[in-house]
Amino acid sequence: MAFTDIDTADLAQRMLSGAATEAGEGWAEVSAFFKVEFRTIARRIKDIGKAVAGGDIDELTAKLLMRMQVNNAVAAVAAMTTMVMVRIERIINAALGLIRDVVNTALGFALL
């Protein structure tokens, strides 16, 4: 498996499913914001995998870029909703947990 095997639409859908479960009540009010951010995260994961595979960045840089992407998503959702950052981070982390094995296997290292 390689970064090219990563289906970004599938990753985003899996993250949405996990986020909905973690968010619980009120999900309908914020789901649109997470949908946009999870599509962005999924595309970014594939881009990071491509950069590592191409030798443009190392795994440490990849992990830093991933953390920055998560931080950006937390800040974006927090700015657009009344949810607090700690709660948003828990939701995003739960969502990433659902794709961890798929992504890490495809990339050949622990990005998530």
Report on the structure:
The chain is built from 4 helices and no strands. It is mainly α and 112 residues long.
Secondary-structure class: mainly alpha
Overall mean pLDDT score? 94
Share of β-strand residues: under 5%
Radius of gyration of CA atoms, rounded to a whole number: 14 Å
- The helix fraction, in percent, is over 70%
Amino- and carboxy-terminal Cα gap = 16 Å
Count helical runs: 4
**Which sequence of SSEs, written as H and E, runs from N to C?**
HHHH
Q: Total number of β-strand segments?
A: 0
Shape: globular
> Which regions contain 5 or more consecutive residues with pLDDT less than 50?
none
Could you describe the largest sheet, including whether it forms a barrel?
none
Keywords, separated by commas or semicolons:
112 residues; mainly alpha; 79% helix; globular
Layout of secondary structure:
Layout: H1 8-23, H2 27-53, H3 59-80, H4 85-107
Compose a concise summary of this entry.
The protein has 112 residues and is mainly α.
